[in-house]
Specification:
With 148 residues, the chain is α+β, with helices and mostly antiparallel strands. It has a single domain, classed as Nucleoside diphosphate kinase-like domain (Alpha-Beta Plaits). Helices cover 37% and strands 19% of the residues. It has helices at 18-22, 26-35, 50-56, 66-73, 88-96, 109-113, 128-138; strands at residues 9-16, 39-46, 78-86, 122-124. The protein has a 4-stranded antiparallel β-sheet. Bound molecules: adenosine-3',5'-cyclic-monophosphate. The site of adenosine-3',5'-cyclic-monophosphate has 8 residues, from loops. Adenosine-3',5'-cyclic-monophosphate binds at residues 60, 65, 69, 99, 117-118, 120, 123.
Length: 148
């Protein structure tokens, strides 16, 4: 029977976090996306303010790890990117690996670069709705260069 699965070109937000930037791993991490066929449609380096970090992670504001998460995300520069490609949202999450690096497979970004659930190297949007909101949080439409 013919394969009727459809694939959609999507965009998703990725953040290389302060631990990985501080360890000089930006290029090595981007390679994981590019070799899987995801393109960088936008990128900028930022040092998040407290207001930005709190707002970006507002969905977690009642979780016990929120304060530590906000402090960590403000602790050094980050690289925010828009990744684009077929099924980019789900594929990005596979490439990143599990949130807790002790559960992430070797060969995933977290499996290879993260040291703990609090310092887990990378963030990626978890759904189409979140991707749209998170991209708009950091990028104007004219800063995103559609590649596919
Ligand atoms: P991230 O994908 O950036 O989304 C929220 C972050 O909170 C997550 O990665 C982790 O770095 C951090 N975090 C810390 N503790 C937890 C936890 N118990 N569950 C989920 N996320 C956690």
């Amino acid at each position: 029977m013919a394969n009727t699965a459809t694939h959609t070109v999507e965009q998703t937000l990725s953040i290389i976090k302060p631990d990985a930037v501080g360890q000089n791993q930006i290029g090595n991490i981007i390679e994981y996306f590019e070799r899987e066929g995801l393109c960088i449609a936008a990128a900028k380096m930022l040092h998040l303010s407290e207001t930005q970090a709190k707002a970006f992670y507002a969905v977690h504001k009642d979780r016990p790890f929120y304060k530590e998460l906000v402090e960590f995300m403000m602790s050094g520069p980050v690289l925010v990117m828009v990744l684009e490609g077929e099924d980019a949202i789900a594929r990005n999450r596979q490439i990143m690996g599990a949130t807790d690096p002790s559960k992430a497979d070797a060969g995933t970004i977290r499996g290879d670069f993260a040291t703990s659930i609090d310092r887990n190297a990378i963030h990626g949007s978890d759904s189409a709705k979140t991707a749209k909101e998170e991209i708009a949080f950091f990028f104007q439409p004219n800063e995103i260069f559609t590649r596919q």
